[in-house]
Write a structure and sequence with these properties.
The protein has 10 helices and 13 strands. The chain is α/β, with parallel strands linked by helices. A hairpin with a 3-residue loop joins strand 1 and strand 2. Bound molecules: zinc ion (ZN).
Length: 301
């Protein structure tokens, strides 16, 4: 336990990714397990099982990324998206079980931390990360520190009275409802029938299909509206767009997003506004969970 590695767990709605992460973000020994959805106890046991499986005695801390919001004062996971976790204190459970420092963070915040430290945002002091997957998450780095608040960046309104948001969110016209893998699935079904999905939409766009290109460009413009507003609040040096859908459809989203974001951002942020694709791909959440583990080890908040 020399402090050079931690055990990282990226808890997702369908799978748990775990690995040993070094301070440079390098990941080794990745293991994957299906996330149980049967009960809270089963999910917690699955997390503990992933940690145990990697625990060769060298890891000095544990970091966990979770798909939900934490109570900032207590660190308790309030509620997870699509998982039976309510009011769970993973710090306490894992700390007691494994007897070492534990860091727990929202998965979007963890991904932002990873891209900032070892990905597309290296060397910046302020960035906003948007993770476009089935839903939309994200995180914010301000003045060289990860903002540890909720950062529900996917639930900003970009279309008043627009389509309903996903899951338990009762809002309308949120970014997640109109520019995400979920939204792309819906657009694909409208264009190409009930069996089409976001993958088909992106494939058709790559093949030069006009309606597919236009549907993705519209999502890009809505993304740009959200980014313009975020720039007007935070004035970040960099906006990083990642996530599975963001990576797959980036070629069709980012130019449109830049155009609208520049229009909406106030001067002089409009001119220096920089939107880039994420670098860490699907491992951003896992790397970020590891870096959260190092923060717990170092007593950093
Ligand atoms: Zn929403």
């Amino acid at each position: 336990m020399d402090g050079s590695r931690v055990i990282a767990v990226d808890l997702g709605g369908t799978k748990i990714l775990a690995g040993l992460v070094g301070r440079d973000g390098r990941v080794e020994g990745i293991v994957e397990a299906v996330t149980p959805t049967s009960s809270e106890r089963d999910v917690v046991e699955a997390i503990c099982g992933a940690v145990s499986g990697l625990d060769d005695g060298t890891a000095a801390a544990i970091g966990v990324g979770v798909p939900g919001n934490l109570d900032r004062r207590t660190g308790v996971l309030l509620r997870a998206t699509n998982l039976p976790l309510d009011d769970v204190d993973l710090h306490a459970v894992l700390g007691k079980r494994f007897g070492r420092p534990v860091g727990v963070e929202n998965d979007g915040n963890a991904a932002a931390l990873a891209e900032w430290r070892v990905g597309a945002g290296r060397g910046t002091h302020d960035l906003v990360m948007l993770v476009l997957g089935t839903g939309v998450g994200g995180g914010i780095v301000l003045d060289g520190r990860l903002y540890r608040g909720w950062a529900e960046l996917g639930h900003v309104v970009v279309e008043l009275d627009g389509p309903p948001c996903q899951g338990s969110c009762h809002g309308r016209g949120h970014l997640e409802g109109v520019a995400s893998g979920h939204a792309a699935d819906g657009a694909a079904r409208v264009l190409y029938g009930p069996d089409a999905d976001a993958h088909a939409l992106v494939s058709r766009a790559r093949a030069g299909d006009g309606p597919a290109v236009q549907a993705l460009a519209r999502m890009g413009r809505l993304l740009g509206a959200a980014i313009g507003s975020l720039v007007n609040i935070f004035d970040p040096e960099l906006i990083v767009v990642g996530g599975g859908f963001g990576a797959a459809a980036g070629d069709f989203l980012l130019d449109a997003a830049r155009e609208v974001a520049r229009r909406e951002a106030v001067q002089p942020a409009d001119e220096r506004l920089t939107i880039v694709a994420a670098e860490l791909g699907a491992s951003a959440g896992l790397v970020g969970a590891g870096l959260v583990g190092f923060q717990a080890l170092d007593g950093e908040r």
